[in-house]
Description:
By secondary structure, the protein is mainly alpha-helical. It contains 3 helices and no strands.
Amino acid sequence: MNEATYRAWAELHRRTVYGETLAESEQAAYAAGCAAMDAEEDAILRRNSMERLRRMRTAIAEAEAEQARLLGRQAEMKARIAALEARFSGPTRQALGIRN
């Protein structure tokens, strides 16, 4: 809605708020202005929702990549631990509580 249209709508809105009766053409213009403003607001909300959704999807993808990296590191560490533990003697393994 451009500035001139908004000013005209705002005057009709003011009159409506104060209980004045609008002529049929004024009522139609007022209703059209309300619909235009609602549509503009809905478009803004949708844009913001879409941007928030994009940010959330990006954050999830980053978290999944970090999780995969950490799981890989965990597997490497477990393999190193298993290799070290395999070198321990029976009594040392028993003292450490290592099974098989």
